[in-house]
Amino acid sequence: MKKTAKPARAESPANQLAGFIAKFDLPMAKRIRSARLAVRRRFPTAIELVYDNYNFLAIGFSASERASDCIVSLAANAKGVGLCFYYGATLPDPHKILLGSGNQTRFIRLESAATLAKPEVEALLSAAVAQAKSPLPPTGRGYTVIKSVSAKQRPRRLAS
């Protein structure tokens, strides 16, 4: 009887994401993990859509597995982490903290996860949820989906 090789087990999305974050310098990896945890706590039922792209590691928080249903995302590169509002151009921003000038997306820079707890940021998060095309599920638990991984990427660490 001939033995056949067992098929390789697919790596879990959690392990894949941990590997993507591990490409960053330690302080940046820590900032990404803490920001992700804070957003996950804020949106426990959201589905995380992960894109390890050429320019950024992006983690979207969505009501479905469609990118168009994302409410916010974390975008990280070697220089920093941003909180992107997919439909930020239409959000009320009385404190003028949103950056960007495109037709749709706006962002804020996250110096740390503590930025997410600021009242003006919390107001933006609440407004983004209120205007979402697809509401987040009221109950349940979100999960992580690896949507794409680019073979070629910009360095995730700053040059020494």
Give an account of the 3D structure.
The chain is α+β, with helices and mostly antiparallel strands and 160 residues long. The protein has one domain (13-147). It is built from three helices and six strands; from the N terminus they run H-H-E-E-E-E-E-H-E.
Shape category = globular
Biggest pleated-sheet summary:
6 strands, mixed
Number of domains: 1
- Are there runs of 5+ residues with pLDDT below 50, and where? none
**Helical run tally:** 3
Structural class: alpha+beta
Helix content: 25-40%
Rg over C-alpha atoms, rounded to the nearest angstrom: 17 Å
- DSSP summary, beta strand count: 6
- Mean pLDDT across all amino acids: 92
**Taking strands numbered 1, 2, ... along the chain, how are they ordered across the largest sheet?**
5-4-3-2-1-6
Q: What's the quaternary structure here?
A: single chain
Task: List the main descriptive attributes of the protein structure presented here.
160 residues, alpha+beta
Secondary structure layout:
Elements: H1 13-22, H2 26-42, E1 47-52, E2 57-62, E3 70-77, E4 80-85, E5 106-110, H3 119-131, E6 144-149
Parallel strand pairs: 1-6
Antiparallel strand pairs: 1-2, 2-3, 3-4, 4-5
Concise overview:
This protein has 160 residues and is of the alpha+beta class.
